[in-house]
Write a structure and sequence with these properties.
The structure is a single chain. The chain has 272 residues and is α+β, with helices and mostly antiparallel strands. It folds into two domains: 3-67; 71-266, Umud Fragment, subunit A (Ribbon). The chain has helices at 3-38, 46-67, 233-236; strands spanning 69-73, 87-92, 98-99, 106-108, 118-122, 136-143, 148-152, 155-158, 161-162, 164-174, 179-189, 194-199, 211-214, 219-223, 239-240, 244-254. Strands 1-2-16-5-6-14-15 form a seven-stranded antiparallel beta sheet. The chain has a four-stranded antiparallel beta sheet with strand order 9-8-7-13, with no helix packed on it. It has a three-stranded antiparallel beta sheet with strand order 10-11-12, with no helix packed on it. The chain is elongated, with a radius of gyration of 23 Å.
Length: 272
């Protein structure tokens, strides 16, 4: 995920506007003149013909991507073991409100993220000059507005209460970016749902960055499920509500970029 999704959305808007305007101008201005001169034998200009043909298709794609569901590709390991590099997911675009394409401004409020939701959002950046600011990121919501979240000693606390965990066994494997040896799969029992996380072997920062954070109004703390290998809110802070893109809900495709081939077992997996 990244700025390519934003650029594609802008391209869709531009193409929709161009084809629609060309078609409309011809239909209301030039077509009546052609019919008066040539009767029913008036030939439609090639540009107008293409615009008339493509406008409904482009408009439909824009509406679906903007207000219903948008596809994204997972490009890293930060959400393992929930999501893997090479997973292609669908994101519910109306879960947190209907938003204007490209600008992401909310026009109709619908709902708010719940603790445990896997969300796509525009990265707020680590300063105004961060070149990746605005890129699409995916993480899990851990802290809601007003929550106090502490992560220390590989243990998560929400509002002073320790979040229970249950070891699920060891994990070892190799991805495009890293060799995972003696990692541990753990079920993290948030009040709203149970989900799996991945922890590296101690000692050191095997659980990832530590500290305490408080969610301010309209801001959320997000973390990756691969706690030992995730650049997330523990490093760069809270995500503003205005940056939310949608809620991830299903894996529709998977491609193993390391070894090649499709992992059919992941297709149709519900994200939780």
């Amino acid at each position: 995920m990244g700025n390519l999704d934003l650029e594609f959305a802008a391209l869709l808007v531009a193409l929709t506007a161009f084809t629609g305007i060309v078609w409309a101008i011809d239909h209301w201005l030039f077509r009546p003149r052609r019919l008066r001169v040539h009767s029913d034998k008036a030939k439609e200009p090639v540009l107008v013909e293409y615009c008339r043909s493509f406008f409904p298709v482009i408009f439909l794609v824009l509406m679906v991507r903007s207000f219903l569901a948008e596809p994204f590709r997972i490009p890293s390991d930060s959400m393992m073991p929930t999501l893997f590099d090479g997973d292609f997911i669908l994101v519910n675009k109306y879960a947190y409100g209907l938003r204007v394409p490209v600008t992401n401004a909310k026009v109709i409020p619908v709902g708010q993220p719940a603790r445990g939701d896997v969300v796509v959002f525009r990265y707020p950046g680590m300063g105004p000059n961060d070149p990746t600011k605005g890129s699409d990121y995916i993480k899990r919501v851990i802290g809601l507005p007003g929550d106090e979240v502490t992560y220390r000693g590989r243990t998560l606390y929400v509002n002073g209460m320790q979040v229970a965990t249950l070891p699920d066994g060891s994990y070892s494997g190799t991805t495009r970016s890293k060799d995972y040896v003696n990692y541990t799969r753990v079920t993290e029992k948030l009040p709203e749902l149970d989900h799996e996380i991945l922890l590296g072997p101690p000692p050191g920062f095997a659980g990832g960055p530590e500290g305490s954070w408080r969610g301010s109004e309209g801001h959320f703390l997000v973390m990756g499920d691969n706690r030992s290998n995730s650049l997330d809110g523990r490093v760069w802070g809270l995500v503003p509500e205005a940056n939310l893109v949608g809620k991830a809900f299903v894996i529709w495709m998977n491609w193993d970029f390391k070894d090649g081939g499709v992992d059919f077992g992941r297709l149709g997996t519900v994200i939780k």
